[in-house]
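debug: dumping io for the single-chain case to check the tokenizer round-trip. Nothing else runs in this session.
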Amino acid sequence: MPRVCVIVLIGMGLTLAVALPGCGDEPRQPAVATAQLEDAPLTISVSTVGWFAKGHSWHLGVNSAGQAELTIDTVPERIRKQFRISKEQIAEFRQALSDTGFFELAGEYGQRVPDGSETSITVAAGRHTNTVKVHYLMNWVGTDKAKLREPSRAVRLLVLVRGWFADEAAVDLREYDRRVLDAAKD
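debug: decoded output
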């Protein structure tokens, strides 16, 4: 939701309040060139949280050496797994960061709906950091595809990351993510 600033001017017996839409919005970050991402230390944190018919919420952390830890919120105990992300996968991710303009994306997309989920991706590449939260996008798949163009850039990265591990206990929303990506192309 865009922010609104209210400016109140008081003088000569008059009070004037002016609402300026968007004056409190955070400025977009400048574009990050591919060359700036090539050798930068990379830290990735991704999570999908919600109540699901099949699968559980999960959290993934990956350091610049490609060491990953996956935590799945199963009951009564969480599942924790450690694994490595290949150099090729990291290189593909770095390229996707550049291709999607990830560091220019806003902090939040989609609609908050009852029983909806939230997927969050935070990437730190050298001195560049951005976090994007993605909520429910399926309402726009059939009705307002133009609204999907920008969030689909983050969804592309989410699909890529979810492909790094296969665990049936962790919810897999790629079927819905691919629908968003396909609709955004139209």
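debug: round-trip ok. Residues 1-20, 22-27 have pLDDT under 50 and may be disordered.
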